[in-house]
Amino acid sequence: MMIVLVIISVLLLIVVPNLSKNQTVASDKGCEATIELIKTQVVAYQVENQKMPKSIDELKNGYVERTTCPDGTELTLVGDQVKKVSSP
Question: pTM value?
Fold first, then answer.
């Protein structure tokens, strides 16, 4: 019985850190995908309107549903680049 508990404990010590690491990687990839989507929609906006959007909020009108990363990080337009808004 004690051996079973030790084995389960060792497995938990191995699995739990990997789960949290995978969540961080997934969150980062989700944000990268959102940024790429918004960049693509900036180009679509530019083609349809013959001008750059003044702000990322202009893209909410038919181009993108949200302008934040899945983890809630705000995004903004700087020229034709999409950047994460850094926290104060």
Answer: 0.71
38-76 exposure pattern, b = at least 16 Cβ within 10 A, e = fewer = beebbeebeeeeeeebeebebbeeebbeebebeeebebe
Nearest-angstrom CA–CA distance, 65 and 53: 15
Give the span between the Cα atoms of 64 and 41, in whole angstroms.
Answer: 7
Residue 38 predicted with pLDDT over 80: yes
Per DSSP (E only), the strands in the chain are 75-78, 81-84
**Sign of the CA dihedral with 41 first, then 44, 48, and 53 last:** positive
Cα 26 to Cα 41, 61, 66, distances in angstroms: 23, 28, 18
